[in-house]
Hints:
Elements: H1 9-21, E1 27-31, E2 36-39, H2 41-46, H3 70-80, E3 89-93, E4 100-109, E5 118-125, H4 127-171, H5 175-200, E6 205-207, H6 208-223, E7 230-236, E8 240-242, H7 243-263, E9 271-280, E10 283-290, H8 297-301, H9 306-317, E11 321-326, E12 331-337
Helix pairs in contact: 4-5, 5-6, 5-7, 6-7, 7-9
Amino acid sequence: MTMNRATHPxxxxxxxLAILASSAAPALLLDGDLNVVAASTSFHRAFAxxxxxxxxxPLFKLGAGEWNxxxxxxxxxxTLSDIARIEAYEMDLKGDAAPRRLVLNxxxxxxGDAEQIRLLLTISDVTEARISEKLKDDLxxxxxxxxxxxxxxxxxxxxxIASVLLQSARRVxxxxxxxxxxxxxxxxxxxxxxxxxxxxxxxxxxxLRGYFVQLCRSLGASMIQDHDRLSLEVTVDxxxxxxxxxxSLGLIVTELVIxxxxxxxxxxxxxxxxxxxxxxxxxxxxSVSDDGVGTPEKMAEAKPGLGTGIVEALANQLDAxxxxxGGHPGTIVLITHPDGAA
Length: 342
């Protein structure tokens, strides 16, 4: 900062001293040799220094010499030479007590007289703020680790439950009971897969392409016996969504894929199930289509089952609508979220 050339050096100097005296933050006025011309009262108080041990002494000899930091010396020299300027420079002040984290700013005061150059150094103590930030980061990191571990444990537990359900389905004599147990097994396995996906993510945004590919791969492995007869394909754009939204979308895909595998390809009929997701602006469209036998008229008129209810409920949570239409051949289920919806 350069003073007006017409300003008398004594007037400018007195003005700088007045500013220093009124400063609530620790501040020093240094001469061209980096000796302390004056210090604010807050500086004496913040660093427990007697005014008589500060004024007139070199900055780097204050206290027990803790201010003698080579990088600070270099930066102050460069500031005096107009080569650089110290702005929000952070340094650790190491004294007899615990280190303190300081933020320094320096401005050159040029009165138009080479012998009257001054340097205004202001200091902020951010030790407690940095400690608080570190504690917060450590807590968040610990929480993330615990949450991931919990997700792993939940996924493992769900797989155990799914295994028990499958074994029970093989032992029972009733076809209806066996069918219900297998449905429960598939749903538990789908939840386990979702949990594994969340545990593998970083608890933040989820890239849908890889997520859906892995999900469908797991569903195919557990439900498709002949992959040459039935295939499960995924086409997804580069969309990235929040983890909670990915869970809802994953559950919708799971229910629709399971439904298609159960009803679209009776007997030894083969075909393809396609999971497609495309976004445009705030809107998006998810579809699960098959080239199977389509929806029989009697089934279309029947009361909606558990899977349909789950899909409808999840779609409502996402402010989306559900529509079913013929694929000629097969069936297409569309989940649509309009652009501009809340």
